[in-house]
Amino acid sequence: MAMENTEELSPLRITATVRALSSALRGKREPVHGSGRGKGDRTFPEPEKLWFKESSAKNLRNRDFLSPSTMLNTLYADGQVPPAVMSRVLSLRGSGVLPVAGGEVMGEGLRLRVDRVAAFRAVLAGGTTEYLKPSGQREGCVVLNCPALHPKPNPPAPDTLSLGQLRTVLLADHMGAMLRRQGFEVSFCPTLPEDSDVAAFLRALGIDWPTAQANWTNDEREERIQKVLESSPYRERGTGSGRRSSGGGGRKAVEEENEGGLRINLKQVFQEEGMLGYDPTLGTCKVHRDSVSHLAQLDLSTADITGTMVTVLHVTSCQDEFRQQQIAVLWRASGAAHSQVTASVCPPRSPCSSFVAVFFFTCSCSLLPQRHLVCGPVKTPGSHLTAAQYLQLRKGQMKEASEMKYGDKVEGQTWDDIIKVMTSATIRFELLSTVHTSPVTLDVQREGGVSTKGPRGGVFVMYNCARLHTLFDSYERGVEKGLYPEIPDGSQLDFSALKEEGEWLLLFNYLIPFSELLDQSGQALDCEGGGARVNIKTEQICKFLVSLSKDFSSYYNRVHVLGEPLPHLFNQMFCRLHLLRALRELYHSALETLNLPPIRQL
Length: 602
Hints:
Protein name: DALR anticodon binding domain containing 3
Helix content: 40-55%
Strand content: 5-15%
Distance between the termini: 49 Å
Number of helices: 19
Strand order of the largest sheet: 6-5-13-14-15
Region (Disordered): 25-47, 228-259
Number of strands: 17
Pfam families: DALR_1 (PF05746)
GO molecular function, one term: arginine-tRNA ligase activity
Structural class: alpha/beta
Organism: Fundulus heteroclitus
């Protein structure tokens, strides 16, 4: 009985269900008739490939999970599932496992149906808190460093920040929110002057980047790092003309005479320190003031961290990639990061000047694999805009679209705040919704507009989130008028009333899987093995929200949630309100990872 209670209280998980189904289906693996060891041996598929979760409305009409016939044929002769195995699959239970209602072998394979009433009850009556946060909490410290915000040598400004660089800042901001949700301690680098234009620009986008008073300096750290580098065993001494140097930045090494400046042999550093994957053309780097400032900011960002594991993520555009490698190796030469630091880069002289890369460098007692994430370029056919111009364009288009829809109501602080959030949502979804290996192409023609309708982008997501708020405001007004009673506890409801296919789709495709979606960025930090690249699926939250909004909008346009105030209709209405209340919280939780506050009314 205690075990049953534990199973009932455990949140339902797709991964746990697939794993349990795979274990039940594999059972005792039967050999091929007449086979011995060698060519006749049966090759068994990986457990996670035996089943897959359905997601399309069409397939969900007759199955929720499918083990394809090709998989069954690898396990059993002629794909015939033994009765004992079938019984084991259909009676499956376990912690986090979705309840099974039935299944059968058809031409496409073994299809399985979930006990949907029990699943609705488990999620909605049991409370959705566990479905709106990562499945587990992680430990560790992550420093997100944006080279685009460091002086080079001049401080950055919105009018000089490129769209590719803006993408790196938004990516770092999103990653920070995701990692914090998983329990990581997160800090950002560099610290910006609080009265700087770039800090105000980031605030306009809803980015809370750390700032310091305008008169704050990091001079003491810079002087200390300068002295450390001057006494470094990697310092080049007595170099004459003709020495190949990487100090000029970029991929083209230059020939320059030594004029007495401080030079560090970067190639010697990464070879002796075992730093794998660095550009082999890294040679001797002349240490400039802005390099020391960059190192001092990194030193500051890690100074107060007490965790045993510290990971530094350098989020940089590929045009600055070579330069950021210099900084990383210089930081190692200065004595920071006392464990192995590795990275990999695009091939020398590769044509990826507008790509984005995320480098991972770790200082800890234990070694983590060092990776980088490469994103495609930001293209604006027919135009060239800075980040500041892009923000102003989208803000103007958003205000114009709002005025066309709502007329004279679009005025005052409330609407200013709405337009600010909607503009930020538009920009974030435009730059973060694309798979990182693909380019982002923006339509920035001034005669265009930002539509408040249509199943795409941040505006569509925010609009549908607002529709949920409007629904519950309408319900509350009905309660005040005595039309409806208060929503009862889920344990008092009969969830068999949720028969609309859109209702199961919203639960099965969004509410149940969301927790595992939140786990992914932290899991990527644990990725080990070959190569220096890491595939962090930074686009998934945006895509998840857009897909959710499409399916919710379709359901909401089709179903009348607040029906006539008749007692015999209340059970179905309350079941739907429980589902939609959970969806509202799901929207809030997902938008929080993008640092977007929900808008209550549009």
